[in-house]
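Q: Sequence in, structure out?
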Amino acid sequence: MTMLSILNLRTHFPSRDGLVKAVDAVDLSIEETENVGLIGETGCGKTVLGLSIIRLLQPSTLIEGKILYKGRDLLTLSEEEMRKMRGKEIAMILQNPTTSLNPVLKVGDQIAEAISLHQGLDKRESRLRAIEMIESVKIPDASRRANQYPHEFSGGMKERVMIAMGLACAPSFIIADEPTKGLDVTVKMQIIDLMKEVTERKSMLIITHDLGAAGEICDKIAVMYAGELIEEARVEDVFEDPWHPYTRGFIKSLPSMGLRPIRGTSPSLIDLPSGCRFHPRCDHAMAVCRRTHPEMIETDGHSVRCLLYA
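A: Exactly. Output:
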């Protein structure tokens, strides 16, 4: 069963300098209990795609296409209907818990607030449920820690609090935005193990530039560049046989693979290159790549947007 299906999604932002094409004609499907990793460089549109799904965007945003969740188009729901979906059906674990958590509220109260809103429990029941959630993400001495403020938690513990908050109302679908960002190696591995455990029976879109984390958690990888998807395949296929020149370069830029950066910089989402958006940085670019924008082609479950395969 398909949990989420994104069809021809465009999310654009008017700006003083022009139209920012943050998400441009994206198609993506996530099955029930499937974890999909959305990877790419900073500024390629990954977080905007996640925010488009949950509709947490500024009012001036221009958004087109379809986002089907269990068959319902989220873009056609009223704001009240969408508010009921957030947290209860679809949860987003925001990046940077230091700024996402309210510094003047105890962490237990912040988790309990979401539980009270979506599950209709009274204050005491919501509080007990919040403590259970803190325990579930393996924070010791949960009753005491529930009475503490965010500044009393380490970076890894704050990330655990964000995961507890996202899971508090037992959503079916989770969007996790950079859950391992800024964590040291030991803490990062703990968070990866925790997310694998708590999302075992859920569907998840994990937004990250950390290929190692995506490889540990996900079933499928979708690679994003300059607002569009350029490759999509099972995790093992992306790591063992990446097709797109950008994906190959992205993997080679990892410290474990030699730390060889891709030359050049990502294009402006306002002034995108003609033809293939990666051609100014591609070592395999042909004359046709400068003129023709490639379509996504699929072979045996592996999709790529590249004229080398056309």
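The two ends are 31 Å apart (CA to CA).
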